[in-house]
TrEMBL record:
This is Hydroxymethylglutaryl-CoA lyase. It comes from the Bacteria. The lineage of its organism: Bacteria, Pseudomonadati, Pseudomonadota, Gammaproteobacteria, Cellvibrionales. The keyword Transit peptide does not apply. Residues 7-274 form the Pyruvate carboxyltransferase domain. It comes from Zhongshania aquimaris.
Length: 288
């Protein structure tokens, strides 16, 4: 299979990464991290979420983060939203893209969102209708594409069917997430074969956790299938509060090194990215 000539990084560290840390980071740390990532050339950055602070206290005051960042015209600042109320808060905060989230595992959906997959989709419908009215793109997350801590292995067809439903509802892109980091490259290939039968590959992204040290191998497999969008987190931040033992997301620095090795263009300054990594790691060490 031919590798793509270019790839795009979606940086999830400021949201998906920091939300799994044990304590809240102040607005200054969060905004400075986002500014440094944008300055490094990352065009899509998850800046925060509008989930209730009761459930995700680390993402409290995301509205102030969106207000405090030094906005760049070439950067999309993404907000995770669970429902229409969260979407409206994201609009007020001037997010220029939103993300919605569900799971290919029924048990995980219940644990993570307190409702079924079908109920998740019902919640998304008014978000997508409203997003179309105000011209805000919506990204869909499908978690547990390979395995679930409660159900075990997930059938690729279940992932494909759910991804197709989200595209039909109006998502412009689907991020396929290996939430517990259990995927093997051959399993990733099976999943992508199934999904690509229902969703064009140019509408897909991959989101790997590095629990078992296979994230880069899985990303290479996805690139071979023609996927050109990769989620990653600065300094490998993250994990999942609903999946015990899941380690962090694949590190953005490692993904850029892989893309450099494969001669795939990405437009990111690795030196500046490493400075952002040093910054957040220093902030983390002060809180431990």
């Amino acid at each position: 299979m031919t590798l793509p000539s270019a790839a795009r990084i979606v940086e999830v560290g400021p949201r998906d990464g920091l939300q799994n840390e044990k304590r809240y980071f102040d607005i200054g740390v969060r905004t400075q991290l986002i500014n440094m990532l944008a300055d490094a050339g990352i065009s899509h950055i998850e800046a925060g979420s509008f989930v209730s602070p009761k459930w995700v206290p680390q993402m409290a005051n995301s509205d102030q983060v969106f207000t405090g960042i030094e906005r760049r015209s070439d950067t999309f600042y993404i907000a995770l939203v669970p429902n229409l109320q969260g979407f409206e808060l994201a609009v007020q905060a001037r997010a220029n893209e939103v993300a919605i989230f569900t799971s290919a595992s029924e048990a995980f959906a219940q644990k993570n969102t307190n409702c079924s997959i079908a109920e998740n989709l019902a919640r998304f419908s008014p978000i997508l209708t409203r997003a179309k009215q105000v011209s805000i793109p919506v990204r869909g997350y499908v978690s547990c594409i390979a395995g679930c801590p409660y159900e075990g292995d997930i059938e690729p067809e279940a992932v494909a069917n759910l991804a197709a439903k989200l595209i039909a509802m109006g998502c412009y892109e689907i991020s396929l997430g290996d939430t517990i980091g259990s995927a093997r490259p051959e399993q990733t290939a099976q999943i992508l074969k199934a999904v690509i039968q229902q969703v064009p590959v140019e509408k897909l992204a991959v989101h790997f956790h590095d629990t078992n040290g296979r994230a880069l191998d899985n990303i290479r497999t996805a690139l071979e299938f023609g996927v050109t969008v990769i989620d990653s987190a600065i300094a490998g931040l993250g994990g999942c509060p609903y999946a015990e033992g899941a380690s962090g997301n694949v590190a953005s620095e490692s993904v850029i090194a892989l893309l450099n090795e494969l001669n795939i263009e990405h437009g990111i300054d690795l030196t500046k990215l490493l400075k952002a990594s040093d910054f957040i790691q220093a902030a983390l060490s002060k809180t431990q």
